[in-house]
Specification:
Distance between the termini: 35 Å
CATH class: Mainly Beta
Largest sheet: 4 strands, antiparallel
Radius of gyration: 19 Å
CATH topology: Neuraminidase
Strand content: over 45%
Number of helices: 1
Shape: globular
CATH architecture: 6 Propeller
Length: about 350
Amino acid sequence: MKSINRVFYYIAFLLSFLFIIIGCGEGGGGKHRNPSHGLDNWHLRSALPQGNVLYGVTYSNGTFVAVGGNTIVTSSDGTTWTYRNSGITNHLYGVTYGNGTFVAVGGIAKSSHGEIPPDTIILTSPDGIEWTYRTSGLNYILRGVTYGNSTFMAVGHNGIILTSPDGITWTYRNSGSTYDLFGVTYGNGIFIAVGNGGAIITSTDGTTWTSRDSGIARADLNGVSCNKDTFVIVGYSVNIFSIFSAILTSPDGTTWASGNSGITNAYLIGVAYGNGFFVAVGYDPNTYLSTILTSPDGLVWTTRLSGPISGLYGVTYGNSTFVAVGDDSNILQSDPIK
């Protein structure tokens, strides 16, 4: 993502940023295609000066928390962000909230050749400001975390799954999968974890897991979310000829069907649900510029944004807005969803 021609990137950035200010910004006089929900209008926020990539974001207890490369930033409104000291130098990929506690997970490989095990990183915080390192006793990179059924669940490389009642004491669970797991959610009485190789696994208790058929074995499935009726998974599939955006939907987490994103050349990385809409984020692999899609049902999708910044990796809903995070500490926030 950093190899893109920098001249092209900054020209595209400036032109698209000007569009946001004039055409869609607050007080800019631009016309709204549908002012009832605010998803046409996204505003660039900044977590500078630290400038590191942001991979994950969540909202709870009146606070947005975003995590990334040696980075934790927080905001009460999604507009003004404050850097927090994580006490570590490794990457954080996922963050969630439950049982009065924020939990962030990550890790980094110590050797590209695998001779030295990677570090597993788990941090907890009561408020998103002060963070404490927790020990898992394992050496795996964790990529996603969620809370449900009175349980924190973290997933990662080589099918690793850890569970905890409090974010402090963690127990290894056998997922039955050797694929890297990138995303996990809980809803409607079921945990769902997704990963590369088209991997989908489900569990009602977090202990016993069942593999489900995604129908796209060559896909990287990166994010998963749900409302009360539908689960949605996003990702992408690559073959020697082309790139396909992947969206899967299911009413129960067991049987999955392909959805239509309306675009083909996007890596979809994160997805969230709030106030009647699914929002999926990612980037165009040719330009590395951001992509935002929205859907009321997970089936019919609308492109809301292409650019103006580089890739987006995480998204959440809170305080009546969606917040998406990505490269260079870029943060996009939607208008309030009414």
